[in-house]
Amino acid sequence: MTLDVFLLGGTGSIGTGLVTELVARGHRVTALSRSAASDHRLQAMGAQVLRGDMMDPAHWMPTALSHDAFVQAAATFGDDMAEADNRVVSQLLADAERTGPKLRVLYTGGCWLYGDTGGNTATETSAFDPLPAFAWMVHHAQRLLQASHLSVAVIHPAMVYHLDGGGVFERFRDAARSHDPVEIWGKPNTRWPLIERHDLARAYCDLLVCPDLRGHFNAVAQQGVRVGDIANTITHLYASQSSTVVRSVADVMQAHGAWAKGPTLDQSMSSAKLQTATGWHPRFTKFQAALNLHTVKAS
């Protein structure tokens, strides 16, 4: 099945992997872009480009709705993030009701919507306990899921890392490379659920072509890995002399904003529902092996 897919966030951490995977599977991708630099990046990956702004969706939504599927994978982590997403969701709900066949929609949530899971493992039946900075995301997802004229699945990615050490590992990687102190926010024993971004892209694609699958789906490869172990692994990988420094939750939130509490949450998360429903399985079930493999190939 070949689909025409409209994508928000095509140059982001998740979107970059998703564009590559969609194109590799033969799907036709159009991505929203705000700049010439983004145009070039998207076109180099094989996507078509539509210029537009998430804050003004009325201008580009008709084009978006001419596609078979709509994927929201954009997040600015800025002060306008909630308002931009609200405008997109509101315009989508209003305009899609007047169009033809039922549109397939994938909306991106996140592991932080479950809050601190403590001794439990979050599944799709777990209650949401989002950080205040992201509470709007739960509301927007629910609005979409309640729309009978849409086929909606909400994907909750674990913490997304890249094979080159980017993504959620980027702070650790950059500090290790320059032999600067590697900062751990919160506590070294805090656990992060993890997924490599190409594995996540595969999960999006597998779910995209199953319009009968609706509701919430977690995407995770490792249920919970200690942040201290991640930092030590990356320091060792780059043969770095860096030491680790622990910063308090209050300190990082003051420095980076309310979103910075997210990486300090102790979490465990399961993707059993997604795997059973689609047959998706992650290729990288150990982040250490994934990073080592990339290092060997690059050397």
Order of helices and strands, N to C? EHEHEHEHEHEEHEEHEEHEHHH
Please state roughly what percent of the residues sit in beta strands, choosing from under 5%, 5-15%, 15-25%, 25-35%, 35-45% or over 45%: 15-25%
By helix and strand content, what is the structural category? alpha/beta
Distance between the termini: 38 Å
Helix content: 25-40%
Radius of gyration (CA) equals: 19 Å
Number of helices: 11
Shape: globular
Oligomer: single chain
Low-confidence parts, pLDDT < 50 over ≥5 residues? none
Mean pLDDT, nearest integer?
A: 94
Order of strands in the sheet with most strands: 3-2-1-4-5-6-10
Number of strands: 12
Largest sheet entry? 7 strands, parallel
Question: What is the gist of this entry?
Answer:
Helix content is 37%, strand content 20%. It is α/β, with parallel strands linked by helices.
